[in-house]
Amino acid sequence: QVQVVESGGGLVQPGGSLRLACAASGSIFSVYDMGWYRQAPGKQRELVAVIASGGSTNYADSVKGRFTITRDNAKNTVYLQMNSLKPEDTAVYYCNCKVHHGYGLVGRDYWGQGTQVTVSS
């Protein structure tokens, strides 16, 4: 029983900023990788950024230098700071968490419901 909830989406003008947050709760021993994905209308879901439990990160080329992913392990929360937003960033953003339930070494993926980000003047 794990819940993953995103927040922070909304409407912003080009060049503006938003900060997304995603909190995992429930039966969690620890969280391995956490990531943000997005899906625009008519397109496949794509990776935006991921962060490992130790803090290493990977970003899609399209967001490098503009987005920053961070996490708070004590709160099982991951953030995505989005700066210099562009219209092409418009999408539903989904949070993914790989959760360890307290046994073994294998994590299980959980997804949030998605939060809409719209970049438009």
Summarize this entry quickly.
This protein is mainly beta and 121 residues long.
How would you describe what is shown here?
With 121 residues, the protein is mainly beta. The protein has strands spanning 2-7, 10-12, 18-26, 30-39, 46-51, 57-59, 67-72, 77-82, 91-100, 108-111, 115-119.
Spell out the key features of this protein.
mainly beta, seven-stranded mixed β-sheet, four-stranded antiparallel β-sheet, 0% helix
Chart the SSEs and their pairings:
Blueprint: E1 2-7, E2 10-12, E3 18-26, E4 30-39, E5 46-51, E6 57-59, E7 67-72, E8 77-82, E9 91-100, E10 108-111, E11 115-119
Parallel strand pairs: 2-11
Antiparallel strand pairs: 1-3, 3-8, 4-5, 4-9, 5-6, 7-8, 9-10, 9-11
The averaged pLDDT comes out at 96
Sheet with the most strands?
7 strands, mixed
Residue stretches low in confidence (pLDDT < 50, at least 5 long) are none
Q: Please report the total strand number as a whole number.
A: 11
Total helix count? 0
Strand content: over 45%
As a percent range, the share of helical residues equals: under 10%
Computed over alpha carbons, the radius of gyration is 14 Å
Choose one word for the global shape.
elongated
**Derived structural class:** mainly beta
What is the H-and-E element order?
EEEEEEEEEEE
Cα(first) to Cα(last) distance is: 40 Å
